[in-house]
Amino acid sequence: MPSGSICAKVLPMPAKPTHLKPLTPAPKRPAGIPDPVWAFPTTLALLSQEHDFYQKDVAKAANVDQSTVSRWLNYQGLVELAATKILRIERGLNLPTGALLPQADPQTLSVRDAAIALGIAPSVVLALGDLKAGERMKAFTPEASRAIMGIVHVYQLTLDQAATIAQRVSEDLGALARSKAMDAPTWYDRMRRIAESAASESGQHPRVGKIDVPRRASK
Q1: Which of 47, 55, 78, 177 could make an SS bond with 173 (beta carbons 3.0 to 4.6 A apart)?
Q2: Distances (CA, A) of 56 to 53, 60, 63
């Protein structure tokens, strides 16, 4: 080596992180895990290539260790993977809502927990699954239906209870209930008075059960 030369030590370059890869082939699916959740590792891996994120990014978005993300990619722990955590991952990675759970069945994905996290009352979740009461909604205008769901949310009534109040309002108003003057806020205000009246009589917001809707004295 020539005199006066400097021997510099070349440090190895850190390994570039790789995009996510699910276990292949996938193991046998345990009972109780719906299709969208079982597809989560594959969907996550495909999106990691499309949106250029890595295991550490998923761990940060989900607020878990990278070892937990590795377990997901190996189809482990999916049965405990709640929709709230998946929603958190989507937001943390700036993914479109629903990107990680395409065609998800809301009744199998802890949607109640997701609703609470989003500030949606559990009464709304119950209303979405109330098919019998849902048939009653066909009798109302779209504006009345929006007001009914607002009453379900704010006063935590069942869909059937809120529909009963709307029916009472409709009977009192007659033809006016079907006019353009009855927009959703007007419907809600009319229904709110009855809901609050029932609440004041019991000392609290009405809960699940029969509501004795007060009738105005006939003129």
Answers
A1: 177
A2: 8, 6, 10
145 neighbors 188 (Cβ within 8 angstroms)? no
Distance CA 132, CA 209 (A): 16
Measured between alpha carbons, how far is residue 113 from residues 63, 110, 116 in Å? 17, 6, 5
Q: Are 162 and 188 in contact (CB under 8 A)?
A: no
pLDDT tens, position by position, 4-53: 555 555 555 556 778 899 998 889 888 777 777 888 898 899 899 889 99
Distances (CA, A) of 148 to 106, 143, 165: 21, 9, 8
Mean pLDDT over each residue of the chain, to the nearest integer: 78
Q: Would you tell me which CATH number, out of the four given (3.40.50.150, 1.10.443.10, 1.10.260.40, 1.10.10.10), belongs to the domain 35-105?
A: 1.10.260.40
CA angle 21, 24, 28 (to 5 degrees): 125
Supply the pTM of this predicted model: 0.44
Spans of all domains in the chain: 35-105, 124-202
Give me the helix-helix angle, 66-73 and 55-62, nearest 10°.
110
Tell me the per-residue pLDDT of 66-83, one tens digit each, with 9 for 90 and over: 999 999 999 998 877 777
User: Cα 204–210–214 angle (5° rounding)?
Assistant: 70
